[in-house]
């Protein structure tokens, strides 16, 4: 058998909403506004967590890590997405696609682990408050956060290296806004069974295990809260974890909706479903990072007080 001529892919074309030009302008404005809110909201959370001494606690340390993670996650894809509307350039280099895939995977896996670490922090604070300063000391919560980043980075390095070592010798059009790994794997001209198995194992470790851990943690938290005799005490105890629980429900609820919704059977329905999936994926990538700081600031007196103090200090320094 003779060898067929195969040209290696040096760049990918991101299809996005190219087939729906009437939607592009609308989504450009929406995504731009949401991205600016993400940068502002999460930036404020990081600033007040660093500069306000009252927020130098494990919970706000985890929260500032979550905010920094959300900024990194969105900045790995949204600027390229927005520039494609302005410049009409829909391509991304092979190496650029690998970097984007790595950052996306790393931030997603890290967030899953980080949310479980935050659940453990709330568990200790409510179920074992007297030992909280000992269990959640700086020598504990800093390695916990660092471990989340390392675990996410190692997993992402493995998944990205397995994907980028595949030969891409045909179509280079990615039917997505970003270098989403499943869309990229469809273009490979080689067996991807190893990649699929690796992703299944990774999903079990970084999705299923954290969800189970968070669920069990909140079962113990709820049982402890219900044993509190006074209604005011129960309300205060629940308010300390309500923001985290809301973020968890939004984060995992969106993932569940994306992958558990029924698939269309006819071709026209499948085409519409592809567009819907891309739009859902796009808003999942920006909606959750945008809501996180709003949820924590609107439902948290300490954060609101820290923001007011920071603004007052700026006003005072400006007058001087």
UniProtKB/TrEMBL annotation:
Family matches, as PROSITE patterns: G_PROTEIN_RECEP_F1_1, G_PROTEIN_RECEP_F1_2
Localization of this protein: Cell membrane
InterPro entries, per database record: GPCR_Rhodpsn, GPCR_Rhodpsn_7TM, Olfact_rcpt
CDD domains found in the cross-reference section: 7tmA_OR13-like
A Pfam family of this chain: 7tm_4
Chief subcellular location: membrane
Spans through the membrane: 25-48, 60-82, 102-120, 141-158, 200-225, 237-259, 279-298
Span of domain G-protein coupled receptors family 1 profile: 41-296
Protein name: Olfactory receptor
Provenance organism: Echinops telfairi (Lesser hedgehog tenrec)
